[in-house]
């Protein structure tokens, strides 16, 4: 029979829990109960054809604890008048929690709420289940928020924050949560709103962060012997005396990149390019980017052009893609949005990948391209490059 059973009622209450509605109501003091839930009851014909089953169903509802049954008088021409359940009532939050076994969790959430300042309670209302998952660390997280409120923009490393039970790994693990709490608690005047996300955490709230670094190589003699790593600030002030700069994502490609006259090669770091942002002298160089032929490779190129509009791609073209068809791999989570800063040829290849014209999530990683093809591509650039001969 398709009549509503106890499990369906519990499932509805569980959905309310899973959405965070019951815990959010504790924060806002909103009244969700008494809650009426309509039942799918036996039809008039079923009252006579399945009378015994109907009686068992009615008896079951009267036996269920924590639920109040709403009855309705149903007239039947054969069996006369009968009282049939049409709805159930959950009279209180406590009854709902008992039915789905969440009373202990709600108790833990109440303990979180009790120690949380009013300024931070909107976060509990918005993310109650997340807060419940953090119950063991919640007192320490609150102490971090309170400390920073008293010491705005402290200009220390996270490791130097000296609070009971607080260590840098705890802060690192919960940066996203702390950022939302800081934004609620701190004065806007002490928040650097130009920095966002986990990567911008330290800058946004005035902590010291490990400096961004740039790793690059320049020719010495006949090989790229000078492998140097500098802070981003030092690299920005360097202004290398070169004409050509190549950026490649793969470390082996970086190490094996051929020595070219008056050139440098930089090891990329995927998205962002914050480490190159202040190196304005790169705008005056012939800049090339060599990434994977996949949607993220083109998305990184598109993002790089936001900072360096004149950058050109290297070996990220249709002939290279098809030459290595036997070595195509699978890109786990492709980019699907438009990339407006690609040129026409790059856009064509990106669309072939994004639209899955060549198959699902096709990619060609740059390290699968033969070294001889790299040398040939450099020779074809026509910018006066001179490949130095190794001795």
TrEMBL record:
Per the UniProt record, one Pfam family is DUF3322
Domain of life, per UniProt, equals: Bacteria
Wadjet protein JetD C-terminal domain location: 206-374
- Domain DUF3322 per the UniProt entry, residue ranges: 8-183
Name assigned to this protein: DUF3322 domain-containing protein
| Protein source organism | Deefgea salmonis
